[in-house]
């Protein structure tokens, strides 16, 4: 089916989002068309305001409304620990636990040769610069257990070791409430590997 130009452009714009294919973009476009004009205007305003009023923190590369961000400028945070994450959404997930009180470093991606992303394309150099601060005693790698996450973790470990800083990694394993029989082999292996003494 050939869409009117305005709808075709809208579908094309939605397809620019990562993991949004033609069918999802089409559904999103038609959802917008069903909304009252006032809601569409609010949606458009929210997009523009979010883009205009956010920046990247000059220290940790978190997305924020200020630079340095609230976490980097807080006197309540433990400045001796830096948790390395790939994206701001990972930082937010960790913050929601209310367990971690240190600083962060957002790589803004993972090493992925298949996608043409090398070490120089993410914020590794900036992390290493931060590690020259003698107050930093530990780096926690909180990267996904994907192939890209594993490759990035191994690469970072090799670069951080000469600093003499403790390197740890978040544990991976079974979510609470999961039956063992339904877990895949990789998840079970990670759960066994990340076990701790009681």
Give the key terms.
198 residues, Dna Topoisomerase Vi A Subunit, Chain: A, domain 2, four-stranded parallel sheet, two-stranded antiparallel ribbon, alpha/beta, 8 helices, Helicase, Ruva Protein, domain 3
> Roughly how many Å is the radius of gyration?
21 Å
Order of strands, main sheet, comes to: 4-3-5-6
What integer is the average pLDDT? 91
Q: In this structure, how is the largest beta sheet organized?
A: 4 strands, parallel
Description:
- The chain is of the alpha/beta class.
- Among the domains are: 5-52, Helicase, Ruva Protein, domain 3; 78-167, Dna Topoisomerase Vi A Subunit, Chain: A, domain 2 (3-Layer(aba) Sandwich).
- The chain is 41% helix and 13% strand.
- The protein contains eight helices and six strands.
- The chain has helices spanning 5-14, 22-34, 37-52, 70-73, 88-96, 124-130, 147-160, 185-193; strands at residues 55-56, 63-64, 78-85, 102-106, 138-141, 166-169.
- Helix 1 (5-14) crosses helix 2.
- The mean pLDDT is 91.
Describe what is shown at a glance.
This protein is α/β, with parallel strands linked by helices.
Chain-wise SSE layout:
Elements: H1 5-14, H2 22-34, H3 37-52, E1 55-56, E2 63-64, H4 70-73, E3 78-85, H5 88-96, E4 102-106, H6 124-130, E5 138-141, H7 147-160, E6 166-169, H8 185-193
Parallel strand pairs: 3-4, 3-5, 5-6
Antiparallel strand pairs: 1-2
Helix pairs in contact: 1-2
